[in-house]
Amino acid sequence: MRTEHLGWPRDLDPDDGPGGRLARRLYGREPELAALTSVLDAVGRGGSRLLSLEGAAGTGRSALLAKVRSDARRRGWTVVTGRASILEAANDFGVLRQVLAGSPAPQDGRSVPALLGGSVPNEDFSPFDLFELASAHLFDFDAGAPVLITVDDLQWCDALSLRWLAYLAHRSANLPLAVVVAGSPGEMSEDRLLVDELITSCERRTLHGLHETAVGQWITDALEARPDEAFAAGCRRATGGNGALLAELLTALAARSVPPVDESAALIESMGRTAVAGRVLPWIKRAGPEALAVARAVAVLGDDSELLMVAELAGLDVDTAAKAVDRLIRLDILSDTSPLRYVHSLTRAVVNSGISAGLRTSQRLRAARVVRDHYAEPERAMPHIMAVDRSGEPWVLDALRAAAESALARGMAQSAAGYLRRALREPMPPAARAGLLADIGAIELGAGVDGAQNTLLEALDLATEPSLRVRIGVDLAYGDATAGRSLEPALELVDEACAALPPERRDLVAEAEFGLFMAYAASADSGEFFGRRLPRLRERVAGDDRLTALAGVVEAWSDTRRGRDRAGCVHRVRAALEVVDRRKPRDVQLRWLAASLLVDAEEYHLAGALCETDGRFTHRQSGAGDAAIAACLRGRLAHGRGDLKAARTEYDSALETPQSAGPARMLWLLTDIGDLDGADRLVRDHGPAAEAGPTWASAAFAFARASLCMARNQYKDALQGFLESGRILCALGIDNPAGLAWRSQAARCHALLGDTVAAAPLAEEELRLARLWGGPRALSTALAATGVVTLDVEPALEAVSVLNGLDADLHRAAALVDLGTVQLEAGAAEEAQQHLQDGFALAREINARPVSLRAARYIRRAGGRPDLGRISGVTALTAQERAAAERAVTGATNRQIADEMVLTQRTVEQYLTSAYRKLGINGRAELAAALSS
């Protein structure tokens, strides 16, 4: 049975399989079928028509030609056909011979023109004489009967046959003639200009991939079941809607009885690759060897398939590569995009599978060099290098190290560790391998990878250089601290390695002490640090002004934990920040610790300025890059200011940060905004694993979970949670209530459970500690709890007043509501109403739903109704919003306002945006009028 060469079948054998047998139905080709019918109808009414069908192989050109021939025969037309071939492109009159060979013998008994025999009457007989003779012969079959000529694979047609078709097209205006040609514009031909000249005189129809509906119907008919959405989408994506590929794919799927369900979608590409291989590669090869080289280059380069790199990898000059790309685009193999991509994923898979393992390795390495040289981004070459098991080339090791450094700068610790793990497969001396393992272990440690300690111990076994052993020891100490293990073995290792350092490297001793401090900061052994290591650190930095200033962060950390000398802590931190060297990892760690201490000290303007990051990575402190650490700090600042929306955005960025309180802070925030269901999901998905020892993160999570219980009126569970948080903090030596006010919250729970005797000492102790520290937000929290527990108006009033001039909307709203409730209990209903309404309006404005609901409840108890009018207008502006707005009215820029108010420019922008919203205006131009009203 004759079939079309590398396209859809003209007539398919019934045993070709369901995908092939159904190809004759021409799914999704209704517009083209209508155009063909229109051509026949028009010629039947008189005159001639020419139609060109253009499309890649497999789009149904030949099947459409077969359909129009069948329709013409049913109408009684004379039908003749020809098909060009790449093997006969140089055979003069090859297609014309086919056309004439299929025509009936003349009625008068004359022979078919001598042209069919390959000879001409005499040497003076021109091609145009043959054109005349052949054309006259076609219309001599049946006087007046219309004639249909179809020519397939026009792109391979010989030049003289093309000239005859063009001759016929220009001289057949009054003849009952229909000419339908079909071809692929992307395949090579020396006579491309002649092809273009011919089809410009035709009505043109371009065949694209089948749409979703047609693909779905074909699947339904072939597999005898309606496909699930993912399965149908997978078939269309894999084949690009190419009918020939789809037919082969469905035949293969049917042969294995694969059901068209979502679960089968994963099988489509693997099964289809084998099924369509016999079609795809010949299609590409027909476009020339350059096209095959380009196709392979694009398959290897993937998302890096820019023309310049494709040309270099294919070994072609840019012009030649561009022409090959153009042919592949016309063939519907590649998409006309930058970077270049395959239209059908199956086609890319077939091309890839046709590259031998050895050639693929070579091509991958060449691709890596091409991409590395083209871009200034080391990671761009990694997909190619990572696909090669081992290269043995020094530049590969350098590229992997550079990519790891780049990944660390972006906070992508897992990627960095993966690149360095791949680097271990390259040949290198033991000392270099030890350093590489130490780097991997440090990164894994920060990222919370379980095997980090084993990696560091493996590095230690290979390390002989004292400075490297010092670094490994410090990292082991940090790992032991975060896991709750004893630090003693790591401390002995560090001390031993420090003693072996040569005199010129004694600077590493002080750096090691700073590193051990960071380990102690994460452990419950802070008391041991103060007694044993802190004196040694002071000794090491003595006489060095820079190191002495950096040691001030250590002193500030100690005082902050104990909640004493807030002003002195801020002074020491600021002095340390003056000498921080952002090029030194240990300095960067201390810088972020300094920023956290400033947040605890409520020096928000200073802490905010430190949150602008340059991207250096700090693995030992938090397992995250600067961006994630900065996001967590910005979240704390926004939370403290009462900008809950901004806080949520920032905490989202830090939620997955290993060894951090990110989940706890997000849980706390979700409780503050009243998203209790979201808080429950976070507890389920991000609850901490069992700790080997007490950590700050576990204390923070216990506090946040207790806050959630309190919001759900589960006061007994909340009380247990707050007391558990306090137990952990006490074990860590942390007394300062600025971080977690567990005593005041536990006191509130006791009071709500009716035990004011147990509540009072906790509230009093927190108030004492808060006054000792002096942070206004922490003090307001303690004062408000004292007022509520003791029903004393004075501390409740002070809780509001200490926040005057501060941007602390959440604390202020809560303090106002607490004051109102205490006043209501004291019988001062009128004053209570005022403060409750103010607290309600502010809580509504910042979306602190639990506070606003509590305020509304007490307003109703006082006999009033919540005043929704207070939520907008000038009176709704916070003190900081009004101050920023008034400065903006004078013409000050955001930068000038930030300098004057000692804020970041970003904070000023947030204030002004909030002010515009409350005032109901669009910008600065309307600000003066809105404030005056």
From TrEMBL:
GO terms for cellular component: cytoplasm. Gene3D superfamilies: Tetratricopeptide repeat domain (1.25.40.10), Winged helix-like DNA-binding domain superfamily/Winged helix DNA-binding domain (1.10.10.10). The keyword Transmembrane does not apply. PROSITE patterns: HTH_LUXR_1, HTH_LUXR_2. InterPro entries: AAA_16 (IPR041664), P-loop_NTPase (IPR027417), Sig_transdc_resp-reg_C-effctor (IPR016032), TPR-like_helical_dom_sf (IPR011990), Tscrpt_reg_LuxR_C (IPR000792), WH-like_DNA-bd_sf (IPR036388). GO terms for biological process: regulation of DNA-templated transcription. PANTHER family: TESTICULAR SOLUBLE ADENYLYL CYCLASE, TRANSCRIPTIONAL ACTIVATOR DOMAIN. This is Regulatory LuxR family protein. It comes from Actinoallomurus bryophytorum.
